[in-house]
Design goal:
The chain is α/β, with parallel strands linked by helices and 196 residues long. It has one domain: Rossmann fold. The chain has three helices and eight strands; from the N terminus they run βαββββαβββα. An eight-stranded mixed beta sheet has the order 1-7-8-6-5-2-3-4. Helix 2 links the parallel strand 5 and strand 6.
Amino acid sequence: MANRPEILWCPKGTGGASGKSGWRFPRNVERLLRAATFCRSTLHLFGGLAAWGVCLDIDPLTRPHVVGDAWLPPFAHHSFDVVILDPPYMSIPVEVKLGLFYAAAFIARESIWWFSTMWVGQPPGLRLVESWLVRAGENAQVRALQHFIPTREFGRPTPMTRGPARKYLHWMSAESAKSAATAPRSQVSGPRSGYE
C-alpha cells in the first residue's frame, strides 16, 4: 500500500467552476494529471468537458468524443494506457463503485486515476501507488486524488441494474448519440493523446 497521502494545495480562484464550461479540474490537479499522462493514450470516463485525451460522457450536451455509460464503456480490452475517473456524484454505493473501477481496469493498460470527494479503499485487483488530499479552493470540499495500477486481468464489464448513471439513460437514445457525434468540440484545446 502507498504511503500516507500528500497534500495538493490549489490556491483561491483555481477551483472546479469555469464560467463558460461550468467545470474543470483545479489547475494544480490538471497539471499533475497532464504530466502523469504525457505521451500516453488517456480516456476520461466522465470527461465531456476535459481538455485532453478521449472524452466519454453520458450527457451529449458536453460534446464528448463518445456518448456512453462509464460503467459500460464501449472500448476494447487494454485500449488506453490511462483511464481517469472523476464522477460527479457525492456518494456511490461500494458495489457500484467497484463496477466502475473494474470497467476502467478492463480498458487501462497502465493505470487508473480517481478524483472525487470520496476516498476509495483498495479495490481488489488494484494497487494504490500514490495519493493526494486536494484542497480544491476556498469553501470547497476536500477531494481525493488516487493513482492505482491493475494487478490482475479484468473481464469485460456487464450491465448494472442500478447505479447513479441509470437516471440518465434517456440521453443514450440513438438520436442524441448521433447529434453529439456530429457536434464540434469547441471546449477542447491542446493535444489529444494520439486519438481522434
